[in-house]
Design goal:
The protein has three domains: 72 residues, OB fold (Dihydrolipoamide Acetyltransferase, E2P), CATH 2.40.50.140; 201 residues, Vaccinia Virus protein VP39 (Rossmann fold, 3-Layer(aba) Sandwich); 109 residues, OB fold (Dihydrolipoamide Acetyltransferase, E2P) (Beta Barrel). Helices cover 23% and strands 28% of the residues. Helix 3 packs antiparallel against helix 4. The protein is built from nine helices and 22 strands.
Amino acid sequence: MGRRRQRLPAEPLNATIEDLSHDGRGVARIDGKAVFIHGALPGEAVRFRLTGRRKAFDMGQVVEVLEPSADRTDPRCPNFDRCGGCALQHLAPEAQLEAKQRVLEENLRRIGGVTPQHWLPPLAGSSWGYRRKARLSVRNVPGKGRVLVGFRERMGRYVCDMTECHTLIPAVGLRLDEISECIGSLSIPDEIPQIEVAAGDDQLVLVVRHLKDLTAGDRARLAALGEALDAHIWLQSGGPDTVKPLLADAPPASLTFSLQQTNAQGEPLTFDFSPLNFVQVNAEMNRQMVSHTLAALELSPEHRVLDLFSGLGNFTLPIAAACRSAVGVEGEESLVELARHNARRNGIDNAEFFAADLREDQAGTAWGRQTYDRVLLDPPRSGAAELVPLLDALAAPRLVYVSCHPGSLARDAGELVAKGYELVSAGIMDMFPHTGHVESIAVFTRS
């Protein structure tokens, strides 16, 4: 017999909010038990409705703010209370940065047992219309009389009923209705589960996933949508290898982004990528982050640099343009090939790229036996724990760690310090404004 569902109180409860959780919920304590309350901010007195119970904590939703925080602001998106795409639109941007900085500080101290010698000022950019990559869920809901296109509801499996999103680039976020209407007009509206958004500096691609074949009429409607949005429509009928343009005879989409660093010809470094490739979501912040990281590396023309988790060369190529040579290592072969292509595109001949599973021992590889003056790593959320022995053996005098998860950074920072590195500095980079996501950078040195 399954566990019996606990009945939740129908009447709202009162609470005073003590803290902010890593995902942007207010934290209160009632009878000694933690309660995570969406829509509440530290210092506030609120009335809230319990939405769920767990053994270690409860969950809730604000019904009324009795005493608001001075940092509270009105969310721009009308969907904020339901949509799972954002968590912090009700918190002023400056206070968001402070909250994320506290998350980084607490993780480094609590998990890693380390504190940097000094804190870097937060790196931030525009907080609206920044998201150039996204996977939008699609669901035909006859009861609502429309196809829903957007992000999932908060803590739910349903697609949020939304008509606009202010964190997506405006070309998509302010035209969700048009996309919804187009999908609703197709012969198979129930067979379109998602739309992938990918925007370069100059072009936009929407990849429409379809589980059944499209008719000629469907294709014509999608083509009209692409024309209306000034976007290239691509189709995906199966795995990533099935992605292709809707119109075979149309000029091919050319997704590119540029950095402020230049190649030998004095032109901005420019990168090609395809709609499903990983690129940083926030173009403005990516440019800032690359410049910030290069400054943290303190490069000289004679340096040899190792870039781990190098992707399509986002860091490797500007590094190579500033020093003697760079080596990029990435686990995904297709990204390695793309990095080599981007090196040729920019006339960079002092960068090498290798494909390797960085979760495995790489000490015996050709690149792992070399000597480097600098090491950069930008791992996934899981971090780089498996690489700590290699980093210890390489003993580069300066190591810069770009992180998308403060917990894994803190764990790895503790291990690196235990191996003889010093944590010189750390700080946040706000790649995802209005969300609880914390991107950060940490600088280590070793004598």
